[in-house]
Design a protein that fits this description.
The protein is of the alpha+beta class and 578 residues long. The protein contains 23 helices and 14 strands. This is BTB domain-containing protein.
Length: 578
């Protein structure tokens, strides 16, 4: 009997051992399967989901699901783990467990210091020894009119959601709000959106936005767009009249500004722009010429002199030496109030001297790129069909250039004897031509840029100067041609320096205020709107105008502060003839 019990116990123990071994084997196989599944493409996150699901499931073994069922299961599990939406809803929208309240623009936000610290503005506020550093309620005084409730809310919301909805209608408010809070990530994304969306209608808006908030990359892209397309924009009065005085000065001072036809057309554009500043309601091109003639003919001698001085910083960059190339243009220039007769006389004398120098000089002229860009003839032509052959009118020191475009090739001919020319030609056997050729499509994108080149041309010689093949969609194309065949003349700005030094600053600034007091007041309103002006002190003895400014953020302070100081210095020089 005892022997039977012993045998039974031994058999029972063996059975238990076998069962334990079987369980261990099964677990090993299961683990091996998981490893194999991971190596065949499953991610670690999915493994975590699978383990989490198995802890909630019943202990019974289930057969393996099919591929379709597995994908459906994964989608369901992923949708349950949308943490970002949960955080946005509970913390930002509902304000759950808020530890700070932000009050601005007549609205309150129940938020969290931990999230707000992503902004440099709040990070500095919380970490510094400020009055509001430890307050549960922080009042923010918004002085920038571009900051709206919608834009401010969207910037705060981006701290919780890591997303922000951008569109061109609210981009100004977003940039203003993000600049105030020093949230660089939003500012950079807004700048990228603006740069990608540059059009004729929006470029000035984005240019002003970049200028106001110190968006340097966007500022440069907008200015480049303006330089490349100003010849088109100037034909749209509704756009031209919105160009600011400061922007116009910078455009005219750009040596690589692209023009169509020639320097005279650029001068006519300035006349049109000045007229639109005085009479902004005339935006019809059909009426423009007649109304302009009425306006300029109605000016008194005092008004003409004041007008000349008020816009001298713009017209001084016009290369008058390239305009006085025919009797008609000289007479028209003398009738206008924008260029003093003494400057015209000096330019004519210098051109005659330059012509003699080039006639008597035997060696070829080497010119630096800097001198080339400051003195080159700026010409252009719009081509809406092919083939096309053209020349630019006027006496250009006896050099008659003919350009021809056909089948993606532009050729340049130095015409002397083979074809009729309206002026006498220079019959030197060989001349050295310095040039730069740029071809742009109808959107201003460069299709070809030769950069500055130098090439010798003999009498009646023709040479290929460009090869490119635009698509039909890119027409009409614009050909911009810079060239120089003479010694560099005196830079245009030099002619104006002695004239301005002889001016009676106090009398002229009074005239300017009388004529353009609306523009001046708009400028001061902009300064007051951007800043809190606490004190203005004017001291005639040392010609200093002191502004004590309290600005709300560093970006505005850095950019507007420099603008104000430069403008103040300019005005003080006018007032006190320093």
């Amino acid at each position: 009997m005892e022997y039977g019990r012993v045998v039974f116990i031994i058999a029972l123990c063996n059975t238990l051992v076998l069962l334990l071994n079987w369980e261990s084997c099964f677990l090993g196989i299961n683990r091996m399967g998981q490893l194999l599944g991971r190596s065949s493409g499953e991610t670690e996150a999915n493994d975590v989901e699978m383990v989490a699901e198995s802890t909630r499931a019943s202990p019974s073994r289930k057969r393996k699901t099919t591929g379709d069922n597995e994908m459906e299961t994964k989608k369901k599990k992923i949708s349950k783990l949308d943490t970002a939406k949960y955080i946005h809803k509970r913390l930002f929208v509902d304000g759950a467990k808020s530890d700070i309240t932000i009050c601005a623009l007549g609205r309150t936000w129940n938020l969290h210091r931990l999230y707000l610290e992503q902004c440099k503005f709040f990070d500095s506020l919380f970490r510094g020894h400020w009055k509001d550093s430890n307050n549960a309620v922080v009042q923010i005084d918004v002085v920038d009119p571009n900051v709206t409730v919608e834009g401010f809310n969207m910037v705060l919301e981006s701290l919780y959601h890591n997303e922000i909805e951008l569109d061109l209608e609210n981009v100004a408010s977003l940039v203003a709000s993000a600049s105030m809070l020093s949230l660089d990530s939003v500012i950079e994304r807004c700048a990228e959106l603006c740069a990608e969306s540059l059009t004729d209608e929006r470029v000035l808006e984005f240019y002003a936005l970049a200028e106001q908030y110190g968006l340097l990359d966007l500022f440069e892209k907008c200015f480049q767009y303006l330089k490349n397309n100003f010849w088109r924009l100037s034909n749209k009065p509704e756009i031209l009249h919105t160009v600011s005085h400061v922007t116009m000065v910078k455009l005219m001072a750009a040596s690589d500004l692209l023009v169509v036809e020639g320097e005279l057309d650029l001068y006519e554009t300035i006349k049109k722009w000045i007229f639109l500043q005085a009479v902004p309601d005339v935006v019809d091109n059909n009426k423009m010429r007649t109304e302009m003639e009425k306006y300029y003919s109605s000016l008194t001698d005092r008004d003409r002199d004041a007008l000349c001085r008020a816009f001298a910083d713009i017209t001084c960059n016009i290369r008058v030496g390239h305009i006085v190339s025919s009797v008609k243009t000289i007479n028209d220039l003398r009738k206008d109030p924008l260029v003093p007769n003494e400057i015209i006389d000096q330019v004519l004398a210098d051109n005659w001297f330059l012509l003699l120098c080039n006639e008597e000089m035997k060696e070829q002229i080497e010119i630096r790129d800097e001198d080339f860009h400051l003195n080159a003839h700026r010409l252009g032509r719009v081509l809406d069909s092919v083939p096309k052959c053209w020349r630019w009118s006027g006496f250009n020191f006896g050099v008659d250039l003919l350009l021809n475009y056909n089948d993606g090739v532009i050729t340049l001919k130095r015409n002397c004897l083979s074809q009729w020319t309206p002026y006498s030609t220079n019959l030197k056997f060989e001349i050295l031509l310095h040039y730069r050729l740029i071809v742009g499509n109808k959107h201003g994108k460069f299709l070809y840029d030769s950069t500055v080149c130098s090439r010798s041309f003999r009498i009646d010689q023709t040479a290929i100067i460009a090869r490119f093949l635009p698509t039909a969609e890119e027409f009409p194309i614009a050909v911009h041609f810079f060239y120089l065949v003479t010694l560099p003349s005196k830079p245009a700005l030099k002619y104006w320096e002695p004239y301005l030094k002889k001016s009676d600053s106090w009398t002229n600034i009074t005239d300017i205020f009388h004529l353009y007091r609306g523009t001046v007041m708009s400028w001061f309103n902009y300064v007051f709107r951007t800043c809190n002006v606490i004190k203005i002190s004017l001291q005639k003895e040392d010609a200093e105008l002191i502004f004590v400014l309290h600005l709300r953020n560093f970006r505005t302070e850095r950019f507007v502060g420099l603008l104000v100081l430069k403008s103040i210095n300019h005005l003080s020089n006018y007032f006190f003839n320093k």
